[in-house]
C-alpha cells in the first residue's frame, strides 16, 4: 500500500502562486519511510500469502457500503474501538489485482507498516474505519476508491483491487487545544495579533504568509522561505482557510488547526498572517477553440499544438534550465478554468524544467513578450482524467505570456 502524498490547504494556496501545481510528479512515499507510530512489538513473519480464490470479484456473502466498497471478515478482532481517518494505524496487508497478481505485501517483507489512515486510497480510509484491533478483512476496492482505471505504463495497479488487511494497532490523533475559538465552519484557532481596518470581501485577492506544521511539529510549508508571499482570490482558497482570512484584518495573525485527514495527526497547524488584500482582476474569457485543436494550429513531434496570439520581441528563447516569469490561464476541454495567474493579479515564476512536459517544451519556443495558446495532450500534462484525484486530466488548454527570462 502506497501512502498518498498529502496536500494541505496552505500548499494549495502556494500552488496557485508558485505553480507547483504544474510540477510533473506521480511518486508517492512508501509508508515504511513515513511511519509515525511508536514501534509495535510484532514478531516478523516472512511468508508468501496465498492468492484469494475470490480475488476476481466480491462473493455473494460480502457486505457492501454505499460507496461500493465490499468486504468480508476473515478473522474477528477484540474490543469495540475503531480508528478514525485522523488516526495512525499499524497493519499487515497484501494486495492483488483481479487477475491474481500480488503487487504489494507487508507480509512478504516480514514487517507491519504504519501510516495516517487519511493518507491512503479512499477504499482503505473507509474500510479500516470498520475494523477493530486484531480483525482481519478482505476488501474488494473499486477503481474509483483505489488508483483509478488501468493505465499501461503508469507503474501503479489499476482497476478493482483486492486486499487482505489485518489491523494490529491504533494510535489516536492528537486534538487541538481545548481553549481555542472556532469559526462557523468549526475550524479551531487562536488570535495571535489583531489587525486593523476592514476585512476582505469574497471577490478580493488576499496576500498572506503562513507556516504549516504537522501536529508533531514538523514544518511542511513556510511561505517566508519563498521570494514573495502568495496572493490568491479569497473565494479560490480551500473553505477552511478562506473562512479564517474572511474574518481577519490586514496585519492580523492567527494560529489555526486545519482539518487535514491525510496529514499525520489529522490536522495542519497553521500560523497565518494577512498582509493585505485588493480587488481581483476579471477572469479571462474561455477560448472559443478550447474543446479541440483547431486546423490552423502548429504541432510538434511530441503532439504539442499551439498558436501565436501576440508576437514577442527579440530572438532569445529560454532553455529548460532557465527560470521564467509568466502570466497564464488553464482550462479543461469543457471550458472550466482550473488555474490562472491573471485572476490573482500576480505573475508566476518557476524553473522551466520543474513543470509538466508540455510547458517545458512549449515555453522554450517563445520569446519575451510573446503570448501563445497551447493544447497539451494528456501524456504531456497530468495524464488521463482520474475522478477524485484533485488534478485536471486529459488534454489541457493554456494561454501563456512570457514576461521575462529570469535565469
Count of helical stretches: 5
- SSE arrangement, N to C: HEEEEHEHEEEEEEEHEEEEEEEHEE
* Dominant shape: globular
Strand content: 25-35%
Helix content: under 10%
What is the straight-line distance between the termini?
Answer: 40 Å
Count of beta strands: 21
User: Number of domains in the coordinates?
Assistant: 3
For the biggest sheet, the summary is:
7 strands, antiparallel
Q: What are the segments in which pLDDT stays under 50 over at least 5 consecutive residues?
A: 9-44
Helix/strand/pairing category: mainly beta
Examine the secondary-structure arrangement and name the CATH architecture of the largest domain.
Roll
Rg, please? 24 Å
Report the CATH C-level class of the largest domain: Alpha Beta
Write the layout of secondary structure elements.
Layout lengths: L8 H10 L44 E2 L5 E6 L12 E10 L4 E4 H4 L3 E4 L5 H7 L7 E6 L19 E11 L9 E2 L5 E6 L10 E11 L4 E4 L8 E3 L5 H8 L6 E7 L7 E13 L18 E2 L5 E6 L12 E10 L4 E4 L7 E4 L5 H7 L7 E6 L19 E10 L2
Antiparallel strand pairs: 1-2, 2-6, 3-4, 3-5, 3-7, 6-7, 8-9, 9-13, 10-11, 10-12, 10-14, 13-14, 15-16, 16-20, 17-18, 17-19, 17-21, 20-21
Describe what you observe in this structure.
The protein has 407 residues and is mainly beta. It has 3 domains: 35-171, Chitinase A, domain 3, CATH 3.10.50.40; 181-279, Chitinase A, domain 3 (Roll), CATH 3.10.50; 298-405, Chitinase A, domain 3. It is 9% helix and 32% strand. It has helices spanning 9-18, 106-109, 122-128, 239-246, 357-363; strands at 63-64, 70-75, 88-97, 102-105, 113-116, 136-141, 161-171, 181-182, 188-193, 204-214, 219-222, 231-233, 253-259, 267-279, 298-299, 305-310, 323-332, 337-340, 348-351, 371-376, 396-405. The strands form 3 sheets. Strands 1, 2, 3, 4, 5, 6 and 7 form a 7-stranded antiparallel beta sheet that branches. Strands 8, 9, 10, 11, 12, 13 and 14 form a 7-stranded antiparallel beta sheet that branches. Strands 15, 16, 17, 18, 19, 20 and 21 form a 7-stranded antiparallel beta sheet that branches. Residues 9-44 have low confidence and may be disordered.
Amino acid at each position: 500500500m502506497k501512502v498518498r502524498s498529502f496536500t494541505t490547504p496552505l500548499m494549495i494556496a502556494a500552488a496557485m502562486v508558485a505553480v507547483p501545481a504544474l510540477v510533473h510528479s506521480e511518486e508517492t512515499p512508501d509508508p515504511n519511510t513515513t511511519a509515525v507510530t511508536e514501534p509495535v512489538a510484532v514478531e516478523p513473519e516472512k511468508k508468501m500469502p496465498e492468492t484469494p480464490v475470490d480475488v476476481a470479484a466480491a462473493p455473494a456473502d460480502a457486505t457492501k457500503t454505499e460507496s461500493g466498497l465490499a468486504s468480508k471478515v476473515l478473522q474477528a478482532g477484540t474490543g469495540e474501538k475503531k480508528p478514525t481517518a485522523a488516526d495512525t494505524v499499524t497493519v499487515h496487508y497484501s494486495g492483488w489485482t483481479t487477475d491474481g497478481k500480488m503487487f504489494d505485501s507487508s507480509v512478504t517483507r516480514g514487517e507491519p507498516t504504519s501510516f495516517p489512515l487519511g493518507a491512503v486510497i479512499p477504499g482503505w480510509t473507509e474500510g479500516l474505519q470498520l475494523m477493530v484491533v486484531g480483525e482481519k478483512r478482505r476488501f474488494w476496492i473499486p477503481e474509483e476508491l483505489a488508483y483509478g482505471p488501468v493505465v499501461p505504463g503508469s507503474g501503479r495497479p489499476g482497476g478493482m483491487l483486492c486486499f487482505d488487511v489485518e489491523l494490529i494497532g491504533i494510535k489516536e490523533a492528537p486534538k487541538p487545544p481545548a481553549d481555542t475559538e472556532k469559526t462557523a465552519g468549526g475550524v479551531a484557532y487562536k488570535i495571535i495579533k489583531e489587525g486593523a481596518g476592514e476585512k476582505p470581501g469574497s471577490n478580493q485577492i488576499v496576500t498572506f504568509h503562513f507556516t504549516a506544521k504537522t501536529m508533531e511539529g514538523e514544518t511542511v510549508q513556510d511561505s517566508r522561505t519563498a521570494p514573495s508571499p502568495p496572493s490568491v482570490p479569497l473565494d479560490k482558497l480551500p473553505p477552511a482557510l478562506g473562512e479564517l482570512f474572511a474574518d481577519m484584518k490586514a496585519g492580523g495573525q492567527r494560529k489555526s488547526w486545519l482539518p487535514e485527514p491525510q496529514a499525520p495527526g489529522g490536522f495542519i497547524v497553521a500560523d497565518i498572517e494577512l498582509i493585505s488584500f485588493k480587488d481581483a482582476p476579471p477572469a479571462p474569457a474561455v477560448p472559443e477553440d478550447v474543446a479541440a485543436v483547431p486546423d490552423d494550429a502548429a504541432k510538434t513531434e511530441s503532439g504539442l499544438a499551439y498558436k501565436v496570439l501576440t508576437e514577442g520581441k527579440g530572438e532569445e528563447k529560454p532553455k529548460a534550465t532557465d527560470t521564467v516569469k509568466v502570466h497564464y490561464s488553464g482550462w479543461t476541454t469543457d471550458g472550466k478554468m482550473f488555474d490562472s495567474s491573471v485572476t490573482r493579479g500576480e505573475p508566476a515564476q518557476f524553473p522551466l524544467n520543474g513543470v509538466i512536459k508540455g510547458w517545458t517544451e512549449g515555453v522554450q519556443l517563445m520569446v519575451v513578450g510573446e503570448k501563445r495558446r497551447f493544447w497539451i495532450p494528456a501524456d504531456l500534462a497530468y495524464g488521463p482524467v482520474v475522478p477524485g484525484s484533485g488534478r485536471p486530466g486529459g488534454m489541457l488548454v493554456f494561454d501563456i505570456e512570457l514576461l521575462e527570462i529570469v535565469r
